Amino acid sequence: MQNDIITFFRVFLINILIIIAVVISVIIIIVIIIAIIIMMIIIIIEVVAIVIIVVIVIIVIIVIIVIIISTSSVAL
Predict the structure, then answer these.
(1) Chain Cα centroid distance, residue 9
(2) Where do transmembrane segments lie in this chain (predicted)?
């Protein structure tokens, strides 16, 4: 009788350990997926920021060139 209880507890403990392992692995997978999504968002934000900066620089350069041309034509 006592032997049955011991085997029952052993099986019970093994099942609990398996469940805990599965839960931990699922949590780790979810964390990795969330981290990948956050990295993608950061990369997209960086790309957008770089594009915006490049556009602003181009606009500033065009404005400076136009000002230089207009002032030089006025000087001429």
Answers:
(1) 43
(2) 12-45, 51-75
Longest dimension (CA), the chain: 112
- This prediction has a pTM of 0.52
What the block records as the tokens of 55 is 């556009």
Cβ atoms < 10 Å from Cβ of 41? 10
Q: What's residue 21's pLDDT?
A: 96
Tell me the H-state helices in the chain. Answer: 2-75
Q: To which residue do tokens 């099942």 refer?
A: 15
Tell me: pLDDT of 70 over 80: yes
Residue 42 reports pLDDT greater than 90: yes
